[in-house]
Design brief:
The protein is built from 6 helices and 6 strands; from the N terminus they run αββαβααβββαα. The chain has 236 residues and is of the alpha/beta class. Strands 1, 2, 3, 4, 5 and 6 form a 6-stranded mixed beta sheet that branches.
Amino acid sequence: MKKTTASALVCLTLLVAQAAFAKKPVIGVAEFDNTATGTYWWGHGVGWELTGMLTNELANTKKFSVVERAKLEPVLREQNLAKAGRIAKGTGAKLGRLTGAKYLVLATVSSFERNTQNTGGGFSFKGISIGGKKDQAYIAVDLRVVNTTSGVIDFARTVEARSGGLGFNLGLFRGGFGGRLANEKKTPAGKAIRAVIVEISDYLVCAMIDQDGCMKEFDAKEDKRKSSLNDKIKLD
């Protein structure tokens, strides 16, 4: 009797776990785009690096079933060929059907600003220049979440992040870094990039999963962003 009860509990636990997994939105992240000017850290492959960062953040929330880039990228590449007229109409890859993703995250870096101010006190020793400076960075990402079944944009938001503080300017390049963004790992620009990725993940969890009071915080940020833009607009 005890064995039967234990087996029943195990089966029930597995069923509950499977049901919970099945309810998770299946989501994929397309290659990041860039329309911002003066984005010095942007280059070949950076779009997919940012995609990988956001994919990891979403997976770590445990609230999404995330489609791997290896499964998503070939389908997106084929769809781009279809848009360019290089594939017969109606024969292009179906994103939702082939990847299993119900939602596709489209992200565009729409603004990036960096402000560096020397604070004095610099010196040089054996070819290494060290100078105090105040380095700040700001990044904005336009976000859209497309329903792959209907093609409708279900969620849209501009997400911002800032970083800054006192630092040192190391004038000697030592090498040994891998990846386009590796050089920005400890810089204000790199911190702003990481912060905006986390902010995007938090927003998606709130808007798509929790759907509770957390949206008040994001709506307040959006109101502040719009207000800031309006203050900068001057009409004659």
